[in-house]
Amino acid sequence: MALKDLKDVTYYDLNNEINIPVNNQIPLEKDHEALEAFLKENVTANTKQFSSLKERFDFLLKEDYIEPQIVSNYSFDFIEKLYDFLRNQNFSFKSFMAAYKFYAQYALKTNDNQYYLENFIDRVAMNALYFADGDEKLAMGIADEIIHQRYQPATPSFLNAGRKHRGELVSCFLIQANDDMNSIGRTINSALQLSKLGGGVGINLSNLREAGAPIKGIEGAASGVVPVMKLLEDSFSYANQLGQRQGAGVVYLSVFHPDIINFLSAKKENADEKIRVKTLSLGVTVPDKFYELIKNDDDMYLFSPYSVEKVYGKPYSYVDITEEYDNMVANPDIKKFKVKARNLENEISKLQQESGYPYIVNVDTANRENPIYGKIVMSNLCSEIMQVQTPSVINDKQEYTELGTDISCNLGSTNIVNMMNTPDFGKSVENMVRALTYVTDHSDIAVVPSIQHGNHLAHTIGLGAMGLHGYLAKNHIYYGEDDSIDFTNVYFLLLNYWTLKASNKIAKERGEVFFNFDKSKYADGSYFDKYLNQDWGPKSDRVAELFDGIDIPTKADWQELKDAVMKDGLYHQNRMAIAPTGSISYINDSTTSLHPIVNRIEERQEKKIGKIYYPAPYLSNDTLKYYQSAYDIDMRKVVDIYAAAQAHIDQGMSMTFFMRSTIPAGIYEWKDGRTDKMTTRDLNILRNYAHKKGIKSIYYIRTFTDNDGEVGVNQCESCSI
Q1: Could you give the number of structural domains in the chain?
Q2: 3-class DSSP assignment, residue 241
Q3: Is the pTM for the entire model greater than 0.70?
């Protein structure tokens, strides 16, 4: 039997039976039966067998499946020792979805796609050997973290580590266009190249002059940002990673850009095909001034990037609109257009209701909390990357006369449930930081010099977390209650402290710090003031009990770290970010990111297969009531959780809002006596609340419509397990 010839398998039907209650009982045992059937009928029957580990590695090397460096960096005795350790950990998948996702998406297969060439242990070994780069102790450490699922590299890293024919290891890219044709052309070329390599691409268009602006003195000649958006969408569609994956991109525009209405309109379902963008994501960068104008119900002015750059001598994105707003309004040399702030706010919310877009980046919040010298002007495809950039200048030969800095980001996630059981929190984090550092050090995106330049200077990584709701439910804590916020605060305090320790240690070992470290708030010590001026430890006995056995940094610990960082620096400009973990959550049997679950039994539509059901991790009669759907939770509770984490995270977080088109009574007090339908007002209030709480970005608005319901265990009010 081969993978393409699978017939008469039982695991799909067994998995589907989870969603069919039997006497008001959720038949979770069917998922375990599906898992066993999948391993027997699919995996065991279709895995290429070898008589020894040596024979397997010889085959993989001879047939060009793995990089020779993987083996040449180590003695084979050590590789066998690593495998012995991994086998002795007795790893097993806990759900059908976990095993299915791993073998469908991550496991190395023969070139003809007929047989599996590795199991989970093999992939863990490849990651450990690859990211440790010959360091045996580190390889064992990384293997220990991944096999116990305390650490999960992001999909590009986990999938491609060690493979001879692979995509890039990094997750996403951020680039920006300046207001000239050379820069626009280079941006489109960069989008093509980066889309081909893999990962999502974020592009800032705020610097481009608006439609109708002059070109070489000819009024009305400029076409604005929408035609550039169309070109970029076509570029992502064309460069689709050999047909394996659709290219993905997001474009960002300032809310004060004169093209903002046309920008938003391009995503509407009824937009003219000449301007409509179907697959391109939209994001809006929002300064504090916008929220102030909304609050006061004022008119607002949209400023021409062309005239702003002429007056200020720098690209539009690099002008502080909140600080300069009144001066710009009063300046006759700056062309401006008047709109009503609340009308624009409603337009944003209308589009979010219809499409889920635009993402919102509270750019002043991001910069106010940024410890790095420079300016954050945009984010990435998932809105969690917040790093400083500098613009490039390109001449008529498409050469860089000034090479700016753009961004590539490589990510990984801690699994909160398993990290809370680690024997050494600090050592675990250090192993993760070193694994991520390998990706940063070996990333070489020469085809886009500004990204290569930025990466070489900044050495950035993004360590995050997943599984929060699962951990809370397992420990009988409701999502959004005080103890859940308290726990989130302490967990990310720890993650921040230990990533700082690891980065400082690497800087000291190498005698190297990130570019402009001396101009950062780390170098002058001011970053650490908040940890020295107040106690960030657990507020309740319940949360203190959860962290029993895990050392919480004291003020003395923070003072010692402050002194060490001021003396020897940090290797990484940025260290943390919360990505919207998808398939890596499934193989970890984890809830996604920091979000509440959507359903106790999640339904996934898989191509060519149909529906697969995934029970929430640790689902039992004891945890059932703690698994409230995100669609039935006040989104202010989600904001409060994320705000607790954001206090310790130097970059951003992918925070999604989950809304029902008909909102259940009692969730939002402002709905009392009003319509129960979701309105733009609801989104306006929540967006303003998130800004007030210090949230840097809102990723996506997911709406559950009245006709999206499904008959099954999630609608069974009295179901038990």
Answers
A1: 2
A2: coil
A3: yes
